[in-house]
Automatic annotation (TrEMBL), chain B:
Gene Ontology biological process terms, A to Z: transmembrane transport
Protein's name according to its UniProt entry: Peptide ABC transporter permease
Membrane topology: Multi-pass membrane protein
InterPro entries named in the record: MetI-like, MetI-like_sf
Length: 725, 326
């Protein structure tokens, strides 16, 4: 497998010296519990024009190591090892010397663009500052350069925007501005720490494109730190997988993705739901393979391989000796030591690496959990199942008011603007869309059981209008919610037994029944009955989400609303929760309304999909139809923006990039709401364009269970799912 | 922005009228100016007392609404009425505002800058010696009544003076310098100002530094500070230009209200050091059953709230682009 990679500047890279070489970097912090060993021996080298991806879950030390490279760790941190920038040792340099390097030779892009810019200065001034720190430019020249930079990163109308304050920029634009700042002084290396994590998937695709442009403009090496294996697959040349403060596997992306030799990497790749997952008609979905347990504490780590307690194939040696990161046996032998240094040879830290892929089948390392057989309800055709929830033309507008004493309405926020869908028994409807599209408002409207502004909500066959209080309370029992953030959704001052008992008490269960129900619930979500006496802070994120699910299930609801239930969790934990949800659905005959921004997750769990855009549903249908033949240009763009954890597919895909950001729901365009960003619109003739601008498209029926609200709906395969394989 | 401020101004003006009226009613109904005259030796005839009280618009027998109407009409025309001694409130008020201004001008500037500096530096050096010491000292000061600090300073000064009169402990200036503004007079005034100003500064530094420390701590971990340093700014410059600049925002309204309201709020300091400012007037006028002076202090305080409100709005808008409205 040594195919040529078009994106890699092969010749240049082979001869060039590494511009940034990190070797044996360790970082430790003092803490009350003892010394936290956050980074325990990281080595890598990047050459000009090369992209190194560093992946790892939260707490793996990936961000700390990049901060150590920049010398931005707090004074209490103890850093050893070596960081060489173009041959010059950086560790041990003082603030003055490091300040000359930071922002000049090393550019940095941080995760959260909402907080990474100083709120009180204009974006332009912050870029100008970055320029003037390192170059002797006068104000006018620096300003001119700032405008140029904003133009390079694709900020529309940069001459005017240069004077905007950060709060006047959208998240994607702020991240562009961050990149402009990072490349302001033609750096040799750009370190990007989760640069797209806080962004919507279409904006993520835009920002990654900008990063690529930035690299072309500067010829810099990029160190890309992320937890998203999909982002790395398409973006990086080489990848390093970190676990517990150390790299456990490293090599060219193809090697690591297609021939992983470390069980952690194998587990990580197996635990991500895949957008390109092919699902044969009628068969049960593939269960994800979660990695059991949690990452180790970094205080006083146990001897042996840190992954051993979670590793399904650990042997005795794994619990006593920590494996070195070495050339994986069975890999092509290194031609020269240079190629090992250059990262072209895959390295693995595992005692059993030589067996994996040889005597040990990769797919068999993790036992695939068995999901229960589809229940009687799920086998019924959809039309014969009872309707659990039905929305018909639901509208929620918020008035925009002005004035402190006398309020007058100056506009309307059309958060939800006439949406209709239904959920049948035993079915999961995935509701997807970018932030601000009205997903959450829809959920709140359903939960609130309003008598509504317009449209009807029918729950279990009952129109909620004209219901009295008791009926409403009854309906609420049958409809429960699981929230996104398991840290915030549980009261930290209540033991979880009380948390689970609360809904039961509210609905008048007696003490004996409650006492019997709690162990039952804990068992149902894979926790121990003894856990009832503990407090939420004693549990990990995944366990807390299990508690939230148990709470939602306490009253035996028929419909569970899941609001981004896994987006706050690491992928290896997420897989376990998704499997649990799948299992509970079949066992208890539940219906789910699953709201998420991660389309791969929705692809995995949903039977039907509703795609929302600016308060409307633009495409609705059976998941297989929508994913295989997305017919609304927005759905196509959304799907094509999702990075796949498959380097080859990523290289071959062409993205449909959307321009700009989601318009404000206070200022909804006439005609088709999507026309302004629609990639298809620009290809249409004048009369067709006029139709898009003037006529609000109705849902066009494309199949037995598939509609799209587009005048020119036509299927395009954007995922290139494994159908062809 | 202008229209917004005008609307705020109108709101504040209503507030001033209400506050002034309420103060007048309270003072007019609860104080008894007659007692002030009845206690005289030799006793004054009742009719002459009533006449004087009527003249001063202080006669408790006149209906309060009628007295208020009379007072309000005068105030609108710029006349604050007579003090119980028969002087013009205007003169007394003017003199005292001057005294308060001279006392507060320097003390509040040094006090707020000092508070910001101590708080910010304490945050940067969290849990180090300076931070621990300044925190301890601040709570010590905040727990102590002002007059205790004042008296303690007086005692300390007396010991330092060691018989001489280098640090003066009473009054604004020595009588021989009254009305003079030459070098000697200024030196004399500075000698007098030292202790009361120091009292106010200590109080303010202690108070403001607590707020500044906590807002600065919030900012220290922020991403934009990290961005600033990643750009290549030196630690100190990043901390001041990006950190402190942002951390000062939430402290601004507190500073403005505190400083402006000190004009009538420095009562204990003025009393302790014998300065005849507005703070002293508040207490003295109540003691003297001086309805018009009390009402003046009330009116003045309400106007101060108005000024503080507008000033803090303006300053905040100037400092934080996020609240500016087009």
């Amino acid at each position: 497998m040594t195919e040529t990679r078009p994106t890699q500047p092969t010749e240049a890279a082979d001869t060039a010296q590494p511009v940034l070489a990190v070797s044996d970097l360790t970082v430790s912090f003092p803490s009350e519990a003892g010394e936290v060993q956050a980074v325990r021996g990281v080595s890598y080298a990047v050459r000009p024009g090369e992209v190194l991806g560093i992946v790892g879950e939260s707490g793996s030390g990936k961000s700390v190591s990049s901060m150590a490279v920049l010398g931005l760790l707090p004074e209490s941190a103890e850093v050893t090892g070596s960081v060489k920038l173009a041959g010059r040792e950086l560790l041990g340099l003082g603030d003055a010397a490091m300040s000359k390097i930071r922002g000049k030779d090393i550019g940095m892009v941080f995760q959260d663009p909402l907080s990474a810019l100083t709120p009180v200065y204009t974006v332009g001034n912050q870029i100008i500052e970055a320029l003037q720190v390192h170059q002797s430019l006068d104000k006018a020249a620096a300003r001119k350069r700032a405008v140029e930079l904003l133009d390079v990163v694709g900020i529309p109308d940069p001459k005017r925007r240069v004077d905007a304050f950060p709060h006047e920029f959208s998240g994607g634009m702020r991240q562009r501005a961050m990149i402009a700042m990072a490349i302001a002084n033609d750096p040799k290396v750009i370190i990007a720490d989760e640069p797209t994590t806080a962004l919507d998937v279409t904006i993520q695709a835009q920002v990654l494109e900008v990063l690529k442009t930035a690299q072309e403009v500067t010829g810099a090496a990029i160190v890309m730190i992320t937890h998203d294996l999909g982002v790395i697959a398409g973006f990086a040349d080489r990848v390093q997988v970190m676990y517990a403060g150390r790299p456990v596997e490293a090599g060219p992306v193809d090697e690591v993705y297609y021939r992983p030799r470390m069980p952690y990497t194998i587990g990580l790749l197996g635990s991500i739901p895949r957008l390109d997952e092919a699902r044969a008609e009628g068969t049960a979905r593939r269960a994800l393979t979660p990695i059991d347990g949690n990452p180790p504490k970094m205080v006083d780590p146990a001897p042996g391989c840190p992954f051993a307690p979670r590793c399904p194939i650990a042997v005795d040696q794994c619990h006593t000796d920590e494996p070195e990161l070495t050339v994986a046996e069975g890999a092509e032998p290194p031609q020269a030591l240079d190629s090992v240094r250059a990262g072209e040879t895959p390295l693995t830290a595992c005692h059993r690496a030589h067996e994996i892929g040889a005597g040990l089948d990769r797919d068999a390392v993790y036992p695939v959990p068995v999901l229960p057989e589809a229940g009687a309800i799920e086998r019924l055709p959809r039309a014969e199942r009872a309707t659990v929830l039905e929305l018909d033309g639901l509208v929620k507008h918020f008035p925009l008011t002005k004035g402190a004493i006398v309020k007058r309405t100056v506009g309307t926020v059309r958060a939800v603007d006439g949406i209709s869908f239904d959920i049948r028994e035993g079915e999961t409807l995935g509701l997807v869309g970018e932030s601000g599209c009205g997903k959450t408002t829809t959920l709140l409207e359903i939960l609130d059981l309003p008598s509504g502004q317009a449209g009807t909500v029918t729950v279990f066959g009952k129109d909620i209008r004209g219901l009295n209080r008791a009926d409403r309370k009854g309906l609420r029992r049958d409809m429960q919610i699981v929230f996104q953030d398991p840290m915030a959704a549980l009261d930290a001052r209540m033991p979880i037994g009380d948390i689970l008992a609360e809904p039961l008490k509210t609905h008048g269960w007696d003490k004996a029944r409650i006492a019997a129900r709690i162990p039952e619930l804990l068992d149902m979500v894979g926790l121990e009955p003894e856990h009832a006496d503990r407090y939420p802070q004693e549990f990990s994120g995944g366990q807390r989400q299990r508690i939230s699910i148990a709470r939602a299930l306490a009253l035996e609801p028929k419909l569970v609303i899941l609001d981004e239930p896994v987006s706050a969790l690491d992928v290896s934990i997420q897989a376990g929760i998704l499997n649990l949800l799948d299992e509970l659905k079949t066992r208890l005959g539940l219906s789910y309304l699953f709201v998420a921004h991660d389309l791969s997750v929705v692809r995995h769990i949903a039977d039907r999909i509703a795609v929302m855009y600016l308060g409307r549903i633009v495409e609705l249908g059976a998941a297989d139809d929508v994913f295989a033949a997305p017919s609304h240009p927005y759905t196509q763009a959304l799907l094509s923006a999702v990075p796949l954890p498959d380097p080859r597919k990523e290289r071959e895909r062409s993205r449909i990039l959307l321009s700009g950001d989601l318009p404000s729901p206070a200022d909804v365009p006439s005609g088709c709401r999507f026309a302004g960003r629609c990639p298809k619109y620009s290809e249409l003739g004048d009369s067709d364009q006029a139709r898009c601008r003037e006529e609000d498209p109705a849902a066009a029926v494309l199949g037995p269970d598939h509609t799209a609200a587009c005048h020119f709906a036509a299927a395009v395969d954007v995922v290139e799912s494994a159908v062809a394989h | 922005m202008g229209r917004y401020l005008l609307r705020r101004l109108a709101n504040y003006l209503v507030l001033v009228v209400v506050a002034a009226a309420l103060t007048y009613f309270l003072a007019g109904l609860s104080l008894n100016p007659r007692a002030k005259f009845e206690g005289r030796n030799p006793p004054l005839p009742a009719s002459s007392i009533t006449k004087t009280l009527d003249e001063y618009n202080m006669n408790p027998d006149t209906p309060i609404l009628s007295r208020f109407g009379h007072w309000a009409e005068d105030v609108v025309h710029g006349d604050l009425g007579k003090t119980i001694e028969g002087d013009d409130v205007n003169d007394d008020f003017g003199r005292r505002v001057g005294v308060s201004t001279r006392l507060l001008l320097l003390a509040t500037i040094v006090g707020s800058l000092g508070g910001i500096a101590v708080g910010a530096y304490g945050a940067i050096r969290q849990y180090r010696l300076f931070d621990r010491f300044s925190t301890l000292a601040s709570f010590f000061v905040l727990a102590m009544p002002v007059f205790v600090i004042g008296v303690a300073l007086k005692i300390g000064a007396t010991a330092l003076n060691d018989g001489s009169q280098t640090i003066k402990v009473l009054g604004e200036y020595d009588p021989q310098y009254a009305g003079q503004w030459n070098f000697d007079a200024l030196v004399n005034r500075a000698q007098h100002m030292l202790l009361p100003a120091l009292t106010l500064i200590i109080m303010q530094v202690a108070l403001y530094s607590r707020y500044q420390r906590s807002t600065m701590l919030d900012v220290l971990g922020s991403d934009f500070l990290r961005t600033a340093r990643a750009k290549g700014l030196r630690r100190r410059k990043a901390l001041v230009k990006h950190g402190l600049r942002t951390a000062i925002l939430p402290v601004v309204p507190l500073l403005v209200y505190n400083i402006v309201l000190l004009f009538t709020g420095a009562t204990f300091t003025e009393k302790t050091f014998g300065w005849h400012g507005m703070g002293e007037l508040l207490v003295d006028s109540i003691q003297k059953q001086d309805v018009n002076s009390v009402a003046t202090v009330g009116l003045f305080t309400a106007v101060l709230v108005l000024i503080a409100g507008l000033l803090s709005d303006l300053l905040y808008a100037a400092l934080d682009p996020r609240v500016r409205v087009r």
